[in-house]
C-alpha cells in the first residue's frame, strides 16, 4: 500500500471533530462498538441518539459510495470463513473489553484514561501478532 | 437536537473513516503488517483524531455538563481488569485477521460487498450473544 499520511491525517481530524461534537454538545463517547452494543440492550434515553448516530454513519457511507467508491469497496485479504471468525471475535472482544479503536483508541486516549491506553496497546499488539501469523505463516502474503 | 448532533457526528465519522483509508481492510492489514511491506499511514489517523479530540476532552474535564445535556455520560471504571485485557486481546486478533474494526466495517457495508456484510452480521450476532449470555449469568447469581 502507498504511504498516504495527508489523507490519513485529514480523515483522522474529521473523526476527532465528530467525537468532539458528540462530547461537547451531547456529553457522549463516540465509540462505535459501544453505540451498537447499547442498541442491543436498549435502555430508556439511550436509543434515539445511538440510532441517529448510526443513521448519520450510514448516510456518510452512502455518500462515500457515490463520490469515492474506493472507500467502501476495499477487499479483505482473507477468505470469507475467516471474515466470519473475525466478526465473532471483534463483536465479543469489544463488548467484553468495553470498546474498540474509536472508544478506547481515540476517545479514551484523548481523555487520558488508563484503561483505554492499556486496551489500545493490547489490541494493537495482538493485531500485529495476528497479522504476522495470518499473512506470513498461513497465507505467505497471497491468500 | 441531541439526536441531530449525533446524526451529524455519525456523518462526519463515516467521512473521516473513508477519507483516511481506515475503511479499506487491505490498508489496515498493511498497517498492522510491520514485518511485511509496512504502510504506517494509519498511525496518522489516530494522530489526527487525538490531536483534535484532546482539546475537546480537556474542555469537558473542566465542565459539569455538556452544552445540550444535564451531565456527561462517560465510562466510570478506572481499574485495568482481566475483562478489559482479554476483551481487547480478542478484539485485536479479530482485527488482525480480516482488517475490519466496528466503524470501518459499518461504513464498508454501504458498498454492499459480501465481506463487510458478512463481517457486520457476525459481529452484531456475537455482540447480541454476549449480552444475552451476560443477562443469563446475572439472573443466575
Describe this protein's structure:
The complex is a heterodimer of chains A (143) and B (141). The radius of gyration of chain A is 17 Å and the shape is globular. In chain A, helix 2 packs across helix 3 (48-67) and helix 5 packs antiparallel against helix 6 (114-138). Chain A contains 6 helices and no strands. Chain A has a domain at 76-143. The model of chain A has no long low-confidence stretch (mean pLDDT 95). Chain A is mainly α and 143 residues long. Chain A has helices at residues 5-26, 32-40, 48-67, 80-96, 101-111, 114-138. Chain B is mainly α and 141 residues long. Chain B has one domain (2-140). Chain B is built from 6 helices and no strands. Chain B has helices spanning 2-20, 25-32, 43-61, 82-98, 102-108, 114-140. In chain B, helix 5 packs across helix 6 (114-140). The radius of gyration of chain B is 18 Å and the shape is globular.
Helix proportion of chain A: over 70%
SS-based class of chain B: mainly alpha
Overall pLDDT metric of chain B: 96
Low-confidence residue ranges of chain B: none
* Poorly predicted ranges of chain A: none
Number of domains of chain B: 1
> What general form of chain B does the structure show?
globular
In whole angstroms, the N-to-C terminal distance of chain A is 16 Å
Strand count, sense and barrel status of the largest sheet of chain B are: none
Write the layout of secondary structure elements.
The complex is a heterodimer of chains A (143) and B (141).
Chain A: H1 5-26, H2 32-40, H3 48-67, H4 80-96, H5 101-111, H6 114-138
Helix pairs in contact in A: 2-3, 5-6
Chain B: H1 2-20, H2 25-32, H3 43-61, H4 82-98, H5 102-108, H6 114-140
Helix pairs in contact in B: 5-6
A few lines on this structure:
The complex is a heterodimer of chains A (143) and B (141). By secondary structure, chain A is mainly alpha-helical.
Amino acid at each position: 500500500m502507498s504511504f498516504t499520511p495527508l489523507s490519513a491525517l485529514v480523515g483522522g481530524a474529521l473523526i476527532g471533530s465528530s467525537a468532539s461534537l458528540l462530547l461537547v454538545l451531547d456529553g457522549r463517547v463516540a465509540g462505535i462498538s459501544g453505540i451498537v452494543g447499547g442498541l442491543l440492550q436498549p435502555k430508556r434515553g439511550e436509543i434515539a441518539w445511538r440510532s441517529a448516530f448510526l443513521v448519520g454513519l450510514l448516510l456518510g457511507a452512502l455518500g462515500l459510495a457515490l463520490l469515492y467508491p474506493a472507500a467502501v469497496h476495499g477487499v479483505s485479504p482473507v477468505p470469507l470463513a475467516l471474515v466470519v471468525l473475525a466478526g465473532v471475535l471483534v463483536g465479543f472482544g469489544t463488548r467484553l473489553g468495553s470498546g474498540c479503536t474509536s472508544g478506547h483508541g481515540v476517545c479514551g486516549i484523548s481523555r487520558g484514561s488508563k484503561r483505554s491506553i492499556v486496551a489500545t496497546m493490547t489490541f494493537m499488539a495482538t493485531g500485529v501478532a495476528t497479522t504476522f501469523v495470518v499473512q506470513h505463516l498461513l497465507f505467505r502474503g497471497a491468500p | 437536537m441531541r439526536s441531530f448532533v449525533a446524526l451529524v457526528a455519525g456523518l462526519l465519522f463515516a467521512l473521516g473513516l473513508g477519507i483516511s483509508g481506515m475503511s479499506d481492510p487491505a490498508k489496515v492489514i498493511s498497517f498492522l503488517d510491520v514485518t511485511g511491506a509496512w504502510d504506517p499511514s494509519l498511525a496518522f489517523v489516530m494522530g489526527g483524531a487525538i490531536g483534535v479530540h484532546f482539546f475537546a476532552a480537556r474542555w469537558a474535564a473542566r465542565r459539569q455538563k455538556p452544552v445540550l445535556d444535564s451531565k456527561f455520560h462517560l465510562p466510570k471504571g478506572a481499574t485495568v481488569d482481566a475483562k478489559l485485557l482479554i476483551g481487547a486481546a480478542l478484539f485485536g486478533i479479530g482485527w488482525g485477521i480480516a482488517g475490519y474494526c466496528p466503524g470501518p466495517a459499518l461504513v464498508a457495508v454501504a458498498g454492499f460487498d459480501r465481506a463487510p456484510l458478512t463481517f457486520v452480521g457476525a459481529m452484531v450476532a456475537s455482540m447480541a450473544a454476549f449480552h444475552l449470555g451476560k443477562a443469563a449469568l446475572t439472573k443466575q447469581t
